[in-house]
TrEMBL record:
<dbReference type="Pfam" id="PF00117">
    <property type="entry name" value="GATase"/>
</dbReference>
<dbReference type="InterPro" id="IPR029062">
    <property type="entry name" value="Class_I_gatase-like"/>
</dbReference>
<dbReference type="InterPro" id="IPR017926">
    <property type="entry name" value="GATASE"/>
</dbReference>
<dbReference type="InterPro" id="IPR044992">
    <property type="entry name" value="ChyE-like"/>
</dbReference>
<protein>
    <submittedName>
        <fullName>GMP synthase</fullName>
    </submittedName>
</protein>
<feature type="domain" description="Glutamine amidotransferase">
    <location>
        <begin position="27"/>
        <end position="187"/>
    </location>
</feature>
Length: 229
């Protein structure tokens, strides 16, 4: 099951390895009336994508607390779970770590620094590969997880817990999806905050995007193959 926090942030390039691994993909939007009745422990695989909201904005988005509670039960059962950007922050929160504004916007294509543990994980596929970053929130590292990657601006870019839980702050799924134009249109204020030029970002997307997606697909494919079902 893919949980979408906004329709323009889907699994994108990750769909290919998910389908190749034999998973039937269902989608649920948090805005759907049905979301309140969804048991997040049920799906064989849960994937939570990004969104512009903060995990701490529970007064504006009441579904956040409900999602974290449901997610905590899934993680307690060690069910296979992938979180991307906001999804990674949701995993951190469900594991008891605080999530908060990081103080600056990280936006654009750049590689992450994969540490030794990361180099021995599926993240080995993205070493030295510029991937898309688009966030300004961060989190403390939860207990009993393994940090896999960092950047100069944000130390906690990826972590895992065992074989079944993977959290990625960056967007290695984006680089070929036409919804990237929606990001530029709907999140234009982020470009101003990050002092980024939309034209230059499009050029970077065309240059780095296909390579990033290929690496991201290899990463997710290897992670799925290593799940302890």
């Amino acid at each position: 099951m893919i949980v979408r926090h906004v329709p323009r942030e889907g699994a994108a390039g990750y769909l290919q390895p998910i389908e190749a691994a034999g998973y039937h993909i269902d989608r649920i939007d948090v805005a759907s009336p049905d979301f309140a009745d969804v048991d997040l422990c049920d799906p064989e695989l849960l994937i939570m994508m990004g969104g512009p909201m903060g995990v701490y904005e529970t007064d504006v988005h009441p579904w956040i607390s409900m999602q974290i509670e449901k997610l905590a039960a899934r993680l307690a059962a060690d069910r296979p779970t992938l979180g991307v950007c906001l999804g990674s922050q949701m995993i951190a929160a469900a594991l008891g770590a605080p999530v908060y504004p990081g103080g600056h916007m990280e936006l654009g294509f750049a590689p992450v620094s994969v540490n030794r543990a990361g180099a021995e994980s599926p993240l080995r596929h993205i070493v030295d590969v510029p991937v898309l970053h688009w966030h300004s929130d961060t989190f403390d590292l939860p207990d009993n997880v393994e940090l896999l990657a960092s950047t100069g601006k944000y130390a906690h870019q990826a972590f895992r817990r065992g074989s079944n839980v993977l959290a990625l702050q960056f967007h290695a799924e984006m680089g070929e999806d036409p919804r990237f134009e929606d990001w530029l249109t709907h999140f234009w204020a982020d470009l101003d905050v990050a002092q980024q030029c939309g034209i230059a970002l499009r050029e970077d997307h065309d240059l780095h995007g296909p390579i990033a997606v290929a690496a991201g697909r290899a990463m997710i494919g290897e992670w799925l193959a290593g799940i302890d079902a």
